[in-house]
Design goal:
Distance between the termini: 53 Å
Number of helices: 20
Number of strands: 0
Shape: globular
Strand content: under 5%
Radius of gyration: 22 Å
Largest sheet: none
Structural class: mainly alpha
Length: 510
């Protein structure tokens, strides 16, 4: 196994993560100060770049879908799919969203409703604030974010399966830059992405641990503590590793299907027993506002220079998506063999965005309905107990709140297990030379090592840093992710141009 390692990718990333763990353990205040300073410089300085890039990637997806490249089959004309369509969609959906939609679907709209930015022109608690809160969810969790993953994963899928490039980040850049990202420099890029995504995964796990901790406190009166977080993290990582040991056709696709069905069941239950008329009216109004104000909302053109709202919300979310994209694309691209480029865009962009609209409409509008009718009770829960506790306050208004809370905790567990399974598989392939188009499973010992580090950093963040610290951890990985995603977009544009030129040549000859 040692001979299979990419040392330049593996050792610097490992040492950096261990150093971060040590600093958190001995001086949490200093760690927060350092990450806060870096985060402020990164988010506030580069906010326009993140916003314009995300929108540009969405437009690139549209161009690719309607171009001759859209008809190309990933893996070649005779390639057989690894998964059936539903299994493919389930694995792709649950790999990307992890616990993000569980944490933010209730918390984010409540905060925006009571704390709308001045440039929105809405008073706290007004109808305008209601519309702004819900439409912000669609900006942060539907089309543009999924375009970040789609462009990157599609570029990798075509390079890996159709052109025979290696299982590395260099594959994303090779159509654009040739062989410059091979060898040692390519390993260095892999190591940078490896560090970034391990930080990002740890941040997401931290948010999930906070949700689980609040759930156990509400349902079973178990106080939140580092011990509770440690037990939850250990369980999640252990089950993810058991699933990862079975390979692509084993545990991961089963977990993904269970996860997808669980999400759909939770959403349908809320639509059935929740304030249905309110959900339809508010979400329909917000969706109309989102589409009608599409470009200004994505580019934040109406926000004054003195405002920091988009830096802390829209840009921060996009930075997190950019951070995850380079590694997630390795897995998403690897499992896409046998489907066309257009099918890839449908499954990784269009369908997840449609699911996001339904999910955030159900949970976000329900939260706002009960907050309004209970005189700001959910917002007060946020002020008193934190963002993670709002979900369980929402469930207390619904029939079967105890069982619903149990299902929600289980959803937290299974969603991160699914994401950890797929991403540790990609991590293993990134820092070794074991993964090829024929042998697509990475070494288990490497998965074990990185899963343990993710669990340790996630536990430390949940125990010592809180939500703001977790958010900053996710943001810090955004810059290297942004650079690599934009490079992959350049590669995809080059492939699109070549496919268009070849198609025109064939038509002229016929």
């Amino acid at each position: 196994m040692i001979r299979q390692l990419k040392p330049i990718a593996f050792w610097p990333a490992l040492i950096a993560m261990l150093a971060a763990l040590i600093l958190i353990a001995i001086d949490q205040r200093r760690f927060i100060d350092i990450t806060t300073q870096i985060n402020t410089i990164l988010i506030h300085t580069l906010s326009p770049l993140f916003l314009y890039s995300a929108l540009g990637l969405l437009l690139l997806c549209l161009a690719t879908f309607i171009s001759p490249l859209g008809k190309v089959r990933i893996g070649g004309a005779t390639a057989e799919p690894i998964y059936s369509p539903f299994r493919w969609f389930s694995v792709s959906l649950t790999t990307v969203i992890a616990m993000g939609i569980l944490f933010w679907a209730v918390a984010e709209p409540v905060v925006h409703f009571h704390e709308p930015p001045a440039f929105s022109g809405s008073r706290p608690g007004s109808d305008g604030a209601l519309r702004f809160a819900m439409s912000s969810l669609f900006v942060h969790w539907t089309l543009a974010p999924y375009a970040i993953y789609t462009v990157t994963a599609l570029t990798f899928a075509l390079g890996f399966h159709n052109h025979g490039y290696g299982f590395s980040i260099g594959t994303l850049l090779r159509p654009l830059a040739g062989d410059r990202f091979q060898g040692r420099f390519g390993e260095l890029v892999d190591g940078l992405v490896l560090f970034s995504v391990v930080v990002g995964m740890s941040a997401v796990l931290s948010g999930g641990l906070l949700l689980i901790g609040d759930g156990l406190r509400v349902l079973f009166d178990i106080p939140k503590s580092g011990t509770v977080y440690a037990l939850a993290a250990s369980f999640i990582i252990s089950v993810a590793l058991l699933s990862a040991a079975t390979g692509l056709r084993g545990g991961i696709q089963l977990l993904a299907r269970v996860n997808a069905v669980l999400f759909i069941a939770l959403m349908l239950y809320l639509l059935l027993v929740g304030p249905g008329d309110f959900i339809l009216r508010v979400s329909g109004d917000a969706l109309t506002a989102y589409l009608g104000d599409f470009f200004p909302r994505h580019l934040m053109t109406r926000e004054p220079a003195s405002s920091q709202w988009s830096a802390w919300w829209t840009t921060a979310f996009f930075a997190s998506w950019f951070a995850w994209a380079p590694l997630s694309c390795l897995f998403l691209g690897k499992i896409a063999r046998g489907y066309t480029v257009r099918q890839f865009i449908l499954v990784n962009l269009v369908l997840p965005s449609a699911f996001g609209i339904l999910w955030f409409s159900a949970f976000g509008a329900s939260a706002l309905y009960f907050d309004i009718h209970d005189h700001g009770a959910l917002y007060q829960t946020y002020k008193d107990q934190g963002l993670a506790a709002i979900s369980y306050q929402l469930f207390s208004y619904l029939p079967g709140s105890f069982v619903l809370g149990l299902f929600f905790i289980f959803a937290c567990l299974i969603s991160f297990i699914t994401a950890a399974d797929s991403n540790t598989d990609a991590i293993g392939g990134l820092c070794t030379r074991a993964v090829t188009a024929e042998a697509m499973t990475s070494p288990f010992t490497i998965k074990l090592l990185w899963a343990a580090i993710i669990g340790a950093v996630g536990w430390s963040s949940a125990t010592y840093l809180g939500v703001d610290g977790i958010k900053m951890l996710a943001n810090l990985a955004g810059l290297p992710g942004l650079v690599i995603v934009l490079g992959s977009a350049g590669s995809l544009i080059r492939m699109l141009t070549q496919a268009t030129r070849q198609s025109a040549q064939v038509e002229s000859e016929s």
